[in-house]
Amino acid sequence: MTTTVSSRTTSDATARRRRLLELVQSYGVIGALLLLGLVATAFSPSFANPGNLTGIVTAACFIGLITIGQSFVLISGGIDLSVGSMVGLGTVVAALAAPYGWGLALTAPILAGAVMGLINGLLIGKARMAPFIVTLSALLAVKGIALVLAGSSIVITGGTFTTIGNGSLLGVSNLIWILLAAFALAALVLNRTTFGSRVFALGGNEDAAKMLGVDVGNVKVAVYTISGALAGLAGALLASRLSSGVATLGTGYELRSIAAAVIGGVLLTGGVGSMLGALCGALLIATIGNVINQIGSLNAYYQDLATGLFLVLAVVVQGVLTNRRRQ
Hints:
This protein has 13 helices and four strands. It is an all-alpha fold.
């Protein structure tokens, strides 16, 4: 009897420890974000001004939307290097469509991104090609298409479309409303639907997912299509914000979206992650950029340096926590 009770107590303690490590792995970025905010406020009290905090969240909108799609792909065990070029294509398509109405200017980039993502998904999910090669090739091809369509840049002159990226509702930027709605919907899909369960299953163990009856090919097609569509939406909103379409506007977003997702607790190997963590990862990257701007004496290149350091730290911490959970 004593042995049974002791064994049960040890088992319960191990389960609690694993649960704690899982929470730290998924949501530790929230603590990092709060800590960075406190440090920034200590050195620059103006950091905590409502206007500045609103600016951070607004700036995080574009990388945040891309990070949602990237998170779906990473959790499924893949990677999407083409999203930056899709953002650039989205800005160009939006600028070309803007003279025909704000509705077309908003939806056309989403459809363009979804089509490009669908092609990626079919090559990866059905033709069984490597995600890295497919999306790297798409990065170059999509950028080429955007450059052919736009030349240097396309200016959007007036119209309702530009008010989407620069207007507000109830005193809050439209971009913030869109970002929060997108993350809420993504979290609902990932955590409360059969599709979300299949994404986790695929990323955790593809062979096991097949044995459970998951159509892994269709799931891969879906996550890459989602990623492309959200990159297109980010491009449309960026064009609305800047009143222009530029093929190279999305350069670097593919790496930043991966960094935001991983910093937010999404494993590069797949099977683990949350939308709340991904959102905080995107906010953390936007906060780093804001802090560097507040310092003033540092140029924008330090943002990439700081983001890279956070990414390395996140990968190391995730590796340690994953090993401890398996013990």
